[in-house]
Amino acid sequence: MATAIDAAQVTYEAPDLEVMEKFLTAFGMVKAEGSDDRTLYMRGTGTQHHIHVTRKAGKQRFTGASIEVAAYDDLVELAAKPGSSPVRKSTEPGGGHEVSMTMPDGIGIRAIWGREKAAPIPDREPFVMNNVRDKNRVNAAVRQPVAPCTIARLGHFVLHVKNHDESMAWLNERFNFLPSDYFVPPGEEGPVVGTFVRLDLGEQLVDHHFMLVLQSDWVGVHHSAFEVTDMDAVMSSHDYLVQQGYTLDVGVGRHLLGSQIFDYWKDPFGFRIEHYTDGDIVDGNHRPTKFNGTASDTTQWGNRPPLEFFQ
């Protein structure tokens, strides 16, 4: 199976690229080279050429996600799977090669390799936190203005599917994913209706989850999530987006599964998008648990989502 090494991008369609660019800039992204009047490419401070793509279309739609793999041979292996495209040169800025696939419910998954890396954008250092025991910040103050934060990277995305087991079998046949935690119906021990998956990179530390696959009555993206510098970045950006009149969804709070401090917003076309920081990092010793609570129970503290949040 192919070795996935990073979440490369999420791709959407929308009728107004200028409106989307204005929001994503306020959210903390930067317009990337190669954007034109048909396609908007947005990047973070990291080395992915772009992490969020919007193509101009008559109505809004999520079209899929792109996953970076470790080697060209991974693309060759994926291309041999039923329903895959041949290996071909990418037409997106940054180049490289790709294989396009479609999950059982029609969600597009694209594997990419060899895309040109972007030069990192300088960002401030994370603020060092003092606690009751460890005084790490000495003779230094925290000064964080209310302003757009800086997005570092695409951390994960959440997909709703009609058949969880079928979708997970499709993914596991193609990529080196490991389960981190499971969702089961509230108050029950099974069946599994959602799986948090992470990358398997040996001894290398990885995020608690790279993707969540969740069974639902509808198919599509629940949200895409972007990592920011620290909690002050989350909070100051929250205030800025409120001031700009954008639509808050759920936040700020701390998740139970993955532990991230989160802040969910709706973009101008109704797609849910998340700022997060301070998520769990795991290695190969991590073992999954089962969670059988409600959506509200997924929050440890802060603004709790409504019961229908994951439906």
From TrEMBL:
Stretches the record annotates as Disordered: 82-101
Entries under PROSITE patterns matching the protein: VOC
Pfam families xrefs: Glyoxalase
InterPro entries: Glyas_Bleomycin-R_OHBP_Dase, Glyas_Fos-R_dOase_dom, VOC_core
Domain VOC: 153-278
Database matches in SUPFAM superfamilies: Glyoxalase/Bleomycin resistance protein/Dihydroxybiphenyl dioxygenase
Stated name of the protein: VOC family protein
Naturally occurring in which organism (per UniProt): Streptomyces chlorus
